[in-house]
Amino acid sequence: MSDPTEGGRPVGEGAEATIRQVDWWGFPAYLKSREPKKYRPKALDERLRRERTRNEARLLVEARRLGVRTPMIYDLDLDRCRLILEQLPGPTLKELIGDAGQPPSAVPEAMQRLGEALGRLHAGHIAHGDLTSSNVLLPDGPAGPAAFLDLSMGSRNAGVEELGIDLHLVEEDVKALSAQAPSLLRGFYAGYLLGNPAGAKDVRARAKAIRGRVRYA
Ligand SMILES: Nc1ncnc2c1ncn2[C@@H]1O[C@H](COP(=O)(O)OP(=O)(O)O)[C@@H](O)[C@H]1O
Ligand SMILES: [Mg+2]
């Protein structure tokens, strides 16, 4: 059989990684690779790419242990800074918000599901670190559990500041994408409270403080 890491359809070229859709021994998969960056000194570049790949793999697994959906890891190659991930179906939250053909309940449901999943992640002391609506998938549709992608900037043992930044980013993103932001965020926070009952108050308070700081910076 041919090497599943060769070929494949290019899906995206992010700032940091190249994504290709590949076939992993019959399973639809995404190959995410961090290519060398010429503008960085070689030793630093290798360390950064390796560490982000390792961090992403570790957090994908730990999130799963907390009951939060993430793609399964089919393969990890730290020398080439590559991950092969299960391809999850479903729209990203961003696509869902931009899709005018959805029933009116879809986005509010998805926002609540996002809140619940993020709450669980936070209750397990994991911060996502790059929480935009492109990094959230709804693999079972808007009424099913939300899944997270792209955890390479996340942290374990996250403090309230890092958790607050996650909430702040969700707020900014939703405000930029939807005119219904206030009611969507109420649903999001209702879900968040379910996922993180013990920590919700403190993390929300910190998000509010961060918003104030950003506004007056
Ligand atoms: N495992 C996956 N299943 C489904 N879609 C994915 C998967 N991984 C990535 N994608 C899609 O590719 C996009 C970019 O992937 P991501 O891991 O966020 O890389 P980047 O670091 O470039 O943002 C996502 O927004 C999503 O649409
Ligand atoms: Mg991304």
Q: Could you walk me through the main structural features you see in this protein, from its secondary elements to its overall organization?
A:
The chain has 217 residues and is of the alpha+beta class. The protein is built from 6 helices and 7 strands, in the order βββαββααββααα. The strands form 2 sheets. It has a 5-stranded antiparallel β-sheet, covered by helices on one side. Strands 6-7 form a two-stranded antiparallel sheet. The longest helix is centred in the first third of the chain and has 24 residues, at 42-65. It binds adenosine-5'-diphosphate and magnesium ion. Magnesium ion is lined by residues 14, 134-135, 149-150.
Salient structural properties:
alpha+beta; Phosphorylase Kinase, domain 1; Transferase(Phosphotransferase), domain 1; 2 domains; five-stranded antiparallel sheet; two-stranded antiparallel ribbon; 6 helices; 7 strands; 15% strand; binds adenosine-5'-diphosphate
Structure summary:
The protein is α+β, with helices and mostly antiparallel strands and 217 residues long.
Task: Give the topology.
Layout: E1 9-13, E2 18-24, E3 27-33, H1 42-65, E4 73-77, E5 82-86, H2 93-98, H3 106-123, E6 136-137, E7 147-148, H4 160-177, H5 181-195, H6 200-216
Antiparallel strand pairs: 1-2, 2-3, 3-5, 4-5, 6-7
Helix pairs in contact: 3-5, 4-5, 4-6
